[in-house]
């Protein structure tokens, strides 16, 4: 009798933790992923929640069955039926095969649809723009270059650039062209949407949209060695009028964060390299810097300098028929942040 009371008390304590199971399962997800600020981020969140809900269709019954079986077939329960020669059950076979097949079919349909709807290379659709109330907004083009422990953002249509700060207008499609002048990493703004790799000598694309103003964290989502966790930047979304005022402020040079020199092939190596740090410490995160002027074709020149096997004609074409005079030592002199 005493043993049964102890067992009953143990079961009650176990059931108390059951309501906390959903929170435990979602503890591996950052809060940013669950608080999207754009249609791409919302789609990613909805797909993640759907997959979590489908997973619970398997996890919850298994946990319940485990607890029930442990209680029902405990050693002290002499009334439980023991089938010594049991070997097969059609009901169990249907359940253990049917449920996984059904789950795979459901997830396949939704994954196929979301893969095409939120393809990083696919421009923001008019439907998404209409959803945020700006169906006729023209895209903002941004060139992204990952460096050692920092990010460089070039606005080719505006003639300005920034380091470790991405300022964008809300309700405007964002067209990113991404490359690396260091090791491979991953460009990711969790609240706005998908991530995509940044690789030297290659160009990837990403299309996002911020539906509301906010100060969002961007990060390098690919491990590249000591210090990579501090390779972050701020993505600041603001109304169009405020963004236009910010652009004018940067162009005028009145902002204290504006560098004294323009960003071109001669000054670029200064910002490419990471500041020195003790051997046993990772470099400190780079400060935010604005550039009121940027040399045209800088992004193309950085991509082209890694394509050493190209012909002279192709090289000139990639450079936009402009001589960038990118110094070869700018990459060789930069300390790599790879730990691999």
From TrEMBL:
It comes from the Bacteria. Residues 313-340 are annotated as: Disordered. Residues 25-122 form the Cytochrome oxidase subunit II transmembrane region profile domain. PROSITE patterns: COX2_CUA, COX2_TM. The chain crosses the membrane at residues 52-73, 94-112. It is a multi-pass membrane protein. One of its GO terms (cellular component) is plasma membrane. Keywords: Cell membrane, Electron transport, Lipoprotein, Membrane, Oxidoreductase, Palmitate, Respiratory chain, Signal, Transmembrane, Transmembrane helix, Transport. GO terms for biological process: ATP synthesis coupled electron transport. It is found in: Cell membrane. InterPro entries: CcO_II (IPR045187), CcO_II-like_C (IPR002429), COX_ARM (IPR010514), Cupredoxin (IPR008972), CuRO_UO_II (IPR034227), Cyt_c_oxidase_su2_TM_dom (IPR011759), Cyt_c_oxidase_su2_TM_sf (IPR036257), Cyt_o_ubiquinol_oxidase_su2 (IPR006333). One of its GO terms (molecular function) is cytochrome-c oxidase activity. Coiled coil: none annotated. Residues 137-249 form the Cytochrome oxidase subunit II copper A binding domain. Belongs to the cytochrome c oxidase subunit 2 family. This is Ubiquinol oxidase subunit 2. It comes from Bombella intestini.
């Amino acid at each position: 009798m005493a043993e049964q009371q102890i067992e009953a008390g143990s079961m009650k304590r176990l059931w108390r933790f059951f309501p906390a199971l959903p929170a435990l399962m979602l503890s591996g997800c950052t809060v940013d992923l669950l608080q999207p600020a754009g249609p791409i981020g919302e789609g990613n969140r909805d797909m993640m929640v759907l997959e979590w809900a489908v997973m619970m269709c398997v996890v919850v019954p298994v946990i319940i069955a485990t607890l029930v079986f442990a209680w029902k077939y405990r050693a002290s329960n002499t009334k439980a039926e023991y089938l010594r020669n049991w070997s097969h059950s059609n009901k169990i076979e249907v359940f253990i095969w049917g449920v996984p097949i059904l789950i795979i079919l459901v997830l396949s349909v939704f994954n196929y649809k979301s893969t095409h709807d939120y393809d990083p290379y696919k421009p923001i659709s008019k439907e998404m723009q209409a959803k945020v109330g700006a169906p006729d907004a023209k895209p903002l083009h941004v060139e992204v270059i990952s460096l050692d422990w920092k990010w460089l953002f070039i606005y080719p249509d505006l003639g300005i650039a920034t380091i470790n700060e991405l300022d964008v207008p809300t309700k405007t499609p964002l067209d990113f062209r991404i490359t690396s002048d260091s090791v491979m990493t991953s460009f990711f703004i969790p609240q706005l949407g998908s991530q995509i790799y940044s690789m030297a000598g290659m160009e990837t694309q990403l299309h996002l949209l911020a539906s509301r103003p906010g100060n969002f964290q961007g990060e390098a989502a690919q491990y590249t060695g000591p210090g990579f966790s501090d390779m972050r930047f701020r993505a600041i979304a603001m109304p169009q009028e405020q963004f236009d005022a910010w652009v004018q402020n940067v162009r005028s040079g009145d902002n204290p964060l504006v560098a004294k020199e323009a960003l071109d092939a001669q000054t670029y190596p200064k910002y490419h390299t990471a500041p020195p740090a003790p051997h046993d410490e990772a470099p400190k995160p780079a400060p935010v810097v604005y550039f009121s002027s940027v040399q045209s074709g800088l992004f193309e020149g950085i991509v082209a300098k890694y394509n050493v096997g190209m012909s002279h004609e192709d090289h000139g074409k990639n450079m936009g028929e402009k001589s960038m005079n990118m110094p070869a030592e700018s990459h060789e002199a930069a300390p790599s942040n790879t730990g691999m």
